[in-house]
Design goal:
By secondary structure, the protein is α/β, with parallel strands linked by helices. The protein is built from 12 helices and 22 strands. Strand 4 and strand 5 form a beta hairpin. Helix 5 crosses helix 6 and helix 5 packs across helix 11.
C-alpha cells in the first residue's frame, strides 16, 4: 500500500452515499460541486477551512444478534449503531433521519486546497478527519469536554451530512496530519478514539482484570488498547464464535466466552469469572449497549468494580439496581470522545496499537450499497468494512 501522496487534482464528480426515512441507500452527485472546487482553489472557503479529497471511510456499525429476555416471549432481534443504524432504523434516540442524508464519519484523505488563513496544512498533506464541529462557546467546549458541546454538529448525525463522499470542506483544526500512515489506519483513528475515551474515563490500570463485552470493531479495538495498557487477565464475550476467534487472533492472551443467551445474568457472570481463572473483573467495558449484556457486566465485576458502557443502546433500559447498590459498583457512560486524535495517531504510528487486522472487506465508493449490505449481514463475517473514494489506497 502506497503512503506517498502528491498534490491531488479533481478528475471526477463529487458523489455521496445517501439514505432516507424510507431506509433506501443510493449514490448520487452532491456538494461541494467538483467544478466549483476546481475553479475556486480554496479562495471561496470560509476562513480556517480546507478541502479534502476523501480516500478511505469505514462503515460504523455491524449486525449483532441478541436475545432480549425482557420481552415475553424472549425474542431474537438485531442491534446496530451509527451508519448501519441510521440506514436500517432511521434514528438513534432523538437523532432522526428526516430527509435525504449522507452517511459516514470515519474518514481520512488528502488536502486539496486551503483558505489563505490556514498555515499548518498544505495541499498534499495526508489527514484524518475528526467529524465533530463545535461552537467553542458553551461550558463543555470551554472546559475541554467538547464532545458534550451544546451546539454540536457531528458529521453523519442528522441533519448534518457525513463524510462518505469524494470531496468535503472541513475546518482545518479538525484535520489531523497523519504523515505516512496508511489511509485505512487514518480512517480507523475515529473508532480508536472511541476506545481511548473509554480507557481514559474507565481508568483501566496495569494488572487490572478487564471484561470486554462485544467483539465488534469497538470491542476489538478496546481489546487492543487493554492489551497495550497491561490489563490481565482480559476476557472478551460475544454471541458469535467467529468474532471471538478474530479476537484471539488480534490478542492471543485474551480469554473468550461465547454468551449463552439462555442463561441468566448471574449464571453468565459465573461463566465469565470461570474464564478468567476465578478473578472477578475490576472493570467491565461494555461495547454493545444491549440490555442483557449490561446486566452480565454488572453481575461479573467485583465489589467496588466499575461497569463502563461504551455501546449505544435503546432509549430506556432496566438494570439490576440492587446488585449495583450492594456491591458499590460504579455504572458510567460515554458519549463520543474529545482530545483523542493526537494520542491515537502516536499509538498507531509507533506500533503500540496495531489496527491492521480489523479491515475484512473493501469496496469502492461506487459499490457502497454492496459495502453496506456486507457490513449489515451477520453471515458475511465482516469486522470493519472500508470504502475507498478514489483510485489510491
Amino acid at each position: 500500500m502506497s503512503t506517498t501522496t502528491t498534490v491531488e487534482t479533481i478528475t471526477k464528480p463529487n458523489i455521496g452515499v445517501f439514505t432516507n426515512p424510507e431506509h433506501k441507500l443510493w449514490i448520487e452527485e452532491t456538494a461541494p460541486n467538483a467544478d466549483d472546487l476546481k475553479q475556486s482553489k480554496g479562495e471561496n472557503l470560509p476562513a480556517g477551512w480546507v478541502t479534502v479529497a476523501i480516500k478511505n471511510t469505514g462503515i460504523c456499525g455491524y449486525h449483532l444478534q441478541t436475545v432480549h429476555h425482557d420481552i415475553s416471549p424472549p425474542e431474537l432481534t438485531t442491534s446496530s449503531r451509527s451508519d448501519i443504524h441510521f440506514w436500517r432504523h432511521g434514528a438513534i434516540g432523538p437523532m432522526i433521519v428526516e430527509n435525504n442524508h449522507i452517511l459516514g464519519h470515519e474518514s481520512s484523505g488528502v488536502i486539496l486546497a486551503t483558505h489563505p488563513s490556514v498555515t499548518h496544512l498544505v495541499p498534499g498533506d495526508r489527514v484524518a478527519i475528526e467529524p465533530g464541529l463545535i461552537c467553542n462557546n458553551c461550558e463543555p467546549c470551554l472546559t475541554g469536554r467538547y464532545n458534550g458541546c451544546e451546539n454540536m454538529r457531528f458529521l453523519s448525525t442528522p441533519p448534518v451530512h457525513g463524510l462518505l463522499r469524494r470531496y468535503v470542506n472541513h475546518p482545518a483544526c479538525w484535520c489531523h496530519k497523519i504523515d505516512d500512515m496508511s489511509f485505512e489506519n487514518g480512517a480507523l483513528l475515529e473508532p480508536l478514539s472511541v476506545a481511548l475515551a473509554g480507557m481514559e474515563r474507565s481508568g483501566v490500570a496495569l494488572g487490572d482484570c478487564v471484561l470486554i463485552c462485544g467483539a465488534g470493531p469497538i470491542g476489538l479495538i478496546t481489546l487492543l488498547c487493554c492489551q497495550a495498557a497491561g490489563a490481565c487477565p482480559i476476557v472478551i464475550t460475544d454471541v458469535d464464535q467467529g468474532r471471538l476467534q478474530h479476537a484471539q487472533k488480534v490478542c492471543p492472551r485474551a480469554k473468550t466466552y461465547k454468551v449463552d443467551t439462555s442463561l441468566s445474568a448471574p449464571d453468565t457472570a459465573a461463566e465469565i469469572i470461570k474464564a478468567t481463572g476465578g478473578v472477578k473483573p475490576a472493570v467491565a467495558l461494555e461495547c454493545t449497549g444491549v440490555e442483557s449484556s449490561v446486566a452480565n457486566a454488572i453481575y461479573s465485576v467485583k465489589f467496588g468494580g466499575k461497569v463502563f458502557v461504551i455501546g449505544v443502546g435503546k432509549p430506556d433500559m432496566v438494570v439490576p439496581f440492587m446488585r449495583l447498590s450492594t456491591q458499590e459498583i460504579d455504572l458510567r457512560f460515554q458519549y463520543r470522545y474529545s482530545n483523542t486524535w493526537p494520542r491515537a495517531i502516536r499509538l498507531v504510528r509507533d506500533g503500540v496499537v496495531d489496527l491492521g487486522s480489523l479491515v475484512t472487506h473493501r469496496f469502492s465508493i461506487e459499490d457502497a450499497v454492496k459495502a453496506f449490505d456486507t457490513a449489515g449481514d451477520v453471515k458475511s463475517g465482516a469486522i470493519k468494512v472500508m470504502i475507498n473514494s478514489s483510485d489510491e489506497e
